[in-house]
Amino acid sequence: METNTILFRNTMRITDGHLDGFRHAIAQAVAFTREHGPQLMVDVFIDEERMLAHSFQLYRDSDAIRAHWRLSDPYIREVMEHCTVQRFEIFGAPDDDIVAALKTPDGASFPFTISPRLAGFNRLETPGRGGAPSDAAGE
What we know:
alpha+beta; disordered C terminus; 30% helix; 5-stranded mixed beta sheet; 3 helices; two-stranded antiparallel ribbon
């Protein structure tokens, strides 16, 4: 079965003096998303020495991204008070409106790349909770 999953990788530069605020905002955002968000997976990693954070978010499809944005806007705004987007990578094929909407909460644009899927699969879904594992082989 083909999959429409989309993976976001967001590299953020943490603003000097904002490390604690960033940590707190990320913890709140992830806790909210775990409870209410449509993501299949969220993981955030931090490189304190370089003041960088890397967020990975896996979505079932573009509809899940839209739902996330509607639900999480206040949390995204809070996180962005403590960092700037240094690099944003999209793996998969989001709908055109998703690509057009990629801006910071204040409307500023940031650099991003899109890499369409070539091949892959995932085992994140468990039977009885959304279906069987899916396979993808190119588009």
